[in-house]
């Protein structure tokens, strides 16, 4: 089977597991938690795509996530202007387009400077969301009333834990498959080459800014898709969604799971949410415990939890 | 008379108040392998950097087969037919060897990547990430990335650096065969005089950012200023 065939088969099998999980988990808090975990896994996936393909660490992806949520919320709040079926994809495309334009500038900056730049841009968006009361509702946030039906589904489906879990699960699997196909494509190979040695890529005749900006745009679009699901589920978005701490959480999820594989950030998000739920019961200082776990993973598994199988294979190979 | 393959006129490069290149004139005849030698700090790598577009010149011009490429960046120069390798191995460590060659070939519409893999004894490593190969393999991969196409002019900055004497001579012989078979003009910066005298038809000697001498290997060996400034006992 070809690489693309394997990805498609894996995606279909994983997608099929969604209804099984929904059937096994009792409805209620846990299913709601899983729905949220899937939405934030999409945000972590977007951070992972940027790290994997461009070698860049972002502290500002909550801005794209929040922008997707706000734009979708504004679009849904003006049904006479746009049908919901157009407003939702347009929110994603608009964020991706802005990220592409922005990417043409910011991807020229590397390392810690890029991370700080994304932090600054993210916080600028946080301030804008706070100050633009007329559009965003300011600090009070934006309450969004969903139309009766979206894509032929009753609005309640999107705000019901089981319904949103299935929708977010399928979206997560589809976006992860897209990211995996990208990684295996010629374009993916080029962006990995640029990540590895940008100067050499230039001397092979490649422009290096456009591909990196395209990855930045794709990553922003994925984050925005997560934001769209967020506002559909919660019917509300506030500046807190754009805050840098949300970007930090997404980065922790991506690093916990590892960014060398496409599925690493998804695994990281699952571990983050499940652990958080357990630790919150034990102590108020759960974030500190999570920090210790992150340190341990970074020290003993620099490639994250998804790097564990590879490490075990190597160890077995060395022993053989 | 045909235009030189690569022609530099009055090439200068200043770092603050320090002149690394001081009005260098250089003409490469199409198809020749030219050696560029000189003591450390003579400006050899700086000259290659300015010729290849890695560093901007402070003055002067560069022409490739008569086409002015002075204002072009590295990618545009590669499309014009000018390629280079680097003093330190410059490859894509995590990518498989074969994929790297494909990537390089695709950009210039070349189909010689599989043949080049064979000719540089890299075919057996095609599926192996470059970081898992031996240093000598990485140096040959570096050369292959520059040679794919092939380019019309190739600038090589110490391709034998870090290799054993035996590996250096083998690489030099392979380089001569490949360049001749493909009609590539080569400017070779190299400290290993055995390599330079073995494959170069002409040699340019640089000292303190200016050309000290130019001639055949025999002429350079006997040039008193070159012997004093650089060759010493190696000329014997």
TrEMBL record, chain A:
GO (cellular component) term, any one = plasma membrane
Gene Ontology MF annotations = branched-chain amino acid transmembrane transporter activity
Question: What is the first-listed, main subcellular location in coarse terms?
Answer: membrane
**Any idea where this protein resides?**
Cell membrane
Q: Does the keyword Membrane apply?
A: yes
Residue runs in coiled coils: none
Keywords assigned: Cell membrane, Membrane, Transmembrane, Transmembrane helix
**Membrane topology listed for this record:** Multi-pass membrane protein
**Transmembrane helix keyword on record:** yes
Q: Which residues cross the membrane?
A: 32-51, 63-82, 88-107, 163-183, 203-232, 252-275, 287-305
Q: What is this protein called?
A: Amino acid/amide ABC transporter membrane protein 2, HAAT family
The organism named in the record is Belnapia rosea
Upper lineage is:
Bacteria, Pseudomonadati, Pseudomonadota, Alphaproteobacteria, Acetobacterales
From TrEMBL, chain B:
> Annotated Gene Ontology MF terms?
ATP binding; ATP hydrolysis activity; L-isoleucine transmembrane transporter activity; L-phenylalanine transmembrane transporter activity; L-valine transmembrane transporter activity
ABC transporter domain: from which residue to which, for each copy?
A: 6-233
Q: Name one GO biological process term.
A: L-isoleucine import across plasma membrane
Q: Does the keyword Transcription apply?
A: no
InterPro entries attached here? AAA+_ATPase, ABC_AA/LPS_Transport, ABC_transporter-like_ATP-bd, BCA_ABC_TP_C, P-loop_NTPase
User: What single Pfam family name could you report for this chain, choosing any that match?
Assistant: ABC_tran
Native source organism of the sequence:
Belnapia rosea
What is the protein's name according to its record? Amino acid/amide ABC transporter ATP-binding protein 1, HAAT family
Alphabetized, the UniProt keywords read:
ATP-binding, Nucleotide-binding, Transport
According to the UniProt record, one GO cellular component term is: plasma membrane
């Amino acid at each position: 089977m070809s690489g693309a065939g394997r990805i498609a088969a894996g995606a279909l099998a994983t997608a099929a597991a969604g209804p099984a999980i929904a059937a096994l988990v009792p409805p209620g808090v846990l299913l709601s938690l899983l729905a949220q975990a899937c939405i934030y896994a999409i945000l972590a996936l977007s951070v992972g795509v940027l790290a994997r393909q461009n070698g860049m660490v972002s502290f500002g992806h909550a801005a794209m996530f929040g922008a997707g949520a706000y734009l979708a919320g504004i679009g849904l709040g003006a049904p006479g202007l746009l049908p919901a079926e157009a407003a939702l994809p347009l929110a994603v495309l608009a964020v991706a387009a802005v990220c592409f334009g922005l990417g043409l500038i910011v991807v020229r900056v590397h390392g810690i400077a890029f991370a700080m730049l994304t932090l600054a841009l993210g916080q600028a968006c946080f301030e804008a969301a706070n100050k633009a009361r007329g559009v965003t509702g300011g600090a009070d946030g934006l309450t969004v009333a969903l139309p009766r039906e979206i894509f032929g589904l009753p609005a309640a489906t999107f705000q019901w834990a089981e319904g949103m879990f299935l929708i977010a699960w399928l979206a997560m699997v589809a976006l992860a498959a897209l990211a995996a196909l990208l990684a295996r494509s010629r374009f993916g190979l080029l962006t990995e080459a640029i990540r590895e040695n940008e100067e050499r890529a230039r001397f092979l005749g490649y422009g290096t800014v456009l591909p990196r900006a395209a990855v930045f745009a794709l990553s922003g679009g994925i984050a925005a898709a997560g934001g769209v699901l967020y506002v559909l589920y919660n019917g509300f978005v506030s500046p807190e969604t754009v805050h840098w701490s949300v970007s930090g959480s997404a980065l922790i999820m991506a690093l916990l799971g590892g960014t060398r594989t496409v599925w690493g950030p998804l695994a990281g998000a699952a571990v983050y949410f499940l652990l958080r739920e357990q630790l919150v019961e034990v102590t108020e200082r759960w974030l500190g415990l999570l920090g210790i776990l992150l340190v341990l993973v970074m020290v003993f598994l620099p490639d994250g939890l998804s790097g564990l199988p590879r490490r075990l294979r190597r160890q077995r190979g060395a022993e053989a | 008379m045909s235009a030189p393959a690569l022609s530099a006129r009055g090439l200068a490069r200043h770092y603050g108040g320090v002149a690394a290149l001081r009005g260098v004139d250089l003409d490469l005849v199409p198809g020749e392998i030219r050696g560029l030698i000189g003591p450390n700090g003579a400006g050899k790598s700086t000259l290659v950097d300015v010729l290849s577009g890695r560093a901007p010149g402070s003055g002067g011009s560069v022409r490739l087969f008569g086409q002015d490429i002075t204002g072009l960046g590295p990618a545009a120069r590669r499309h014009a037919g000018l390629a280079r390798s680097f003093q330190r191995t410059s490859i894509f460590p995590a990518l498989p060897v074969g994929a790297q060659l494909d990537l390089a070939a695709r950009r210039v519409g070349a189909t010689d990547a599989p043949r080049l893999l064979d000719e540089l004894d890299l075919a057996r490593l095609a599926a192996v990430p470059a970081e898992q190969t031996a240093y000598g393999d990485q140096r040959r991969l570096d050369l292959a990335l520059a040679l794919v196409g092939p380019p019309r002019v190739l600038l090589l900055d110490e391709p034998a650096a870090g290799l054993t004497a035996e590996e250096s001579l083998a690489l030099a012989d392979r380089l001569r065969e490949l360049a001749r078979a493909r009609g590539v003009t080569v400017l070779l910066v190299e400290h290993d005089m055995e390599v330079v005298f073995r494959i170069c038809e002409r040699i340019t000697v640089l000292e303190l950012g200016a050309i000290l001498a130019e001639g055949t290997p025999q002429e350079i060996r006997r040039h008193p200023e070159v012997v004093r400034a650089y060759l010493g006992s190696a000329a014997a």
